[in-house]
Design goal:
It is built from ten helices and eleven strands. With about 300 residues, the chain is α+β, with helices and mostly antiparallel strands. It folds into two domains: about 160 residues, 2-Layer Sandwich (Ribosomal Protein S5, domain 2); about 120 residues, GHMP kinase, C-terminal domain (Alpha-Beta Plaits). Strands 1, 2, 3, 4, 5, 6 and 8 form a seven-stranded mixed β-sheet that branches. The chain has a four-stranded antiparallel β-sheet with strand order 9-10-7-11, with helices on one face. Helix 1 packs parallel to helix 2 and helix 8 crosses helix 9.
């Protein structure tokens, strides 16, 4: 009878999500992608829970998930393990249990956050095989354009397809976010196609460019009054009116500003006081969207 594998480490990690305080989308490029300018902002809630048991010696990943639909070999966590192992040769035997709390298809980056957690976990334990920050970011962007942001875990202005990151402080310390997540899901590929169909760009290169509000003024977000902007709102709200209504309710309940995150379906409201945020959360809770509260 063979010996059972020896568990050498058990780790539990929270995996936070993100919202986009600003998202401007350029025309479709020849390679099918779009240039964007976005301000990524991490939120501590809702967060997935990433539980890992590492065993002695090499092996493979045994991936489990609280959502059976996501428990596949194509899940970004499993893919992140495989690409890291291929790039470095470090392939420990792991049992991974992912408890999903970040709503799927909500524009909160849950899958990318999970992938970044896997990459970060492996890189911290790879010893001499570990990658430097630049090499790890190159590996991450192959999994998803916003995976490099989650490796950094701090607010950042992103350009390109979202992979070029510059740290940015929007000045929201002490604020509170109420996040409303309607039950519907928005497909990212559909959202980009719908946006392309709904608008046209000037033929002359450079005649219209992405916003430069954040590049032009590095002072705090709330001091400058730099606008909350998401180019996907018109097409997403037209197809899913309940998402637009969630934004309207956040504003009606006292949010200083509200916005769709990513391609949706989540919308968030910014509140100056916790009391106001708690009151708004109570008003939104019930049979409507799932609601979360995060303090910044």
């Amino acid at each position: 009878m063979g010996l059972l594998p020896l568990c050498v480490e058990e780790t539990v990690l929270p995996v936070p999500c993100k919202v986009n305080l600003h998202l401007a989308v350029g025309p479709r490029r020849a390679d099918g992608y779009h240039n964007i300018e976005t301000l990524f902002f991490p939120l501590p809630e809702p967060a997935d829970v990433f539980s890992v048991r590492r065993f002695d010696g090499p092996g493979e990943i045994d991936f489990m998930c609280s959502d059976p639909d996501l428990e596949t070999d194509d899940n970004l966590v499993a893919r992140a393990y495989r690409v890291f192992a291929a790039a470095t040769g470090f392939a420990p035997r792991l049992e991974v249990m992912l408890k999903k709390r970040i709503p799927h298809g909500a524009g909160l980056g849950g899958g990318s956050a999970d992938a970044a957690a896997m990459l970060g976990y492996l890189n911290e334990r790879a010893g001499d095989l570990a990658l430097d920050d630049a090499a790890l970011a190159r590996l991450a962007v192959g999994l998803g354009a916003d995976v490099p942001f989650f490796l950094q875990g701090r607010p950042a202005l992103a350009t390109g397809v979202g992979e070029r990151l510059v740290p940015f402080d929007p000045g929201l310390s002490g604020w509170h976010v109420v996040l409303a997540c309607p039950a519907c899901r928005v497909n990212t590929a559909w959202a980009y196609a719908a946006l392309d169909t709904a608008r046209t760009f000037p033929a002359k290169p450079g005649a219209q460019c992405l916003t430069s509000a954040f590049e032009a003024n590095k002072r705090s977000f709330c001091v400058t009054g730099a606008p909350l902007r998401n180019d996907f709102e018109p097409v997403v709200f037209a197809a899913h009116p309940e998402i637009g209504r969630a934004k309207e309710r956040l504003l009606a309940f006292g949010a200083a500003g509200a916005l769709l995150s990513g391609t949706g379906s989540a919308v968030f409201g910014l509140f100056r006081t916790r009391h106001a945020a708690v009151v708004a959360m109570a008003q939104l809770s019930g049979n409507g969207p799932r609601v979360f509260l995060a303090s910044l």
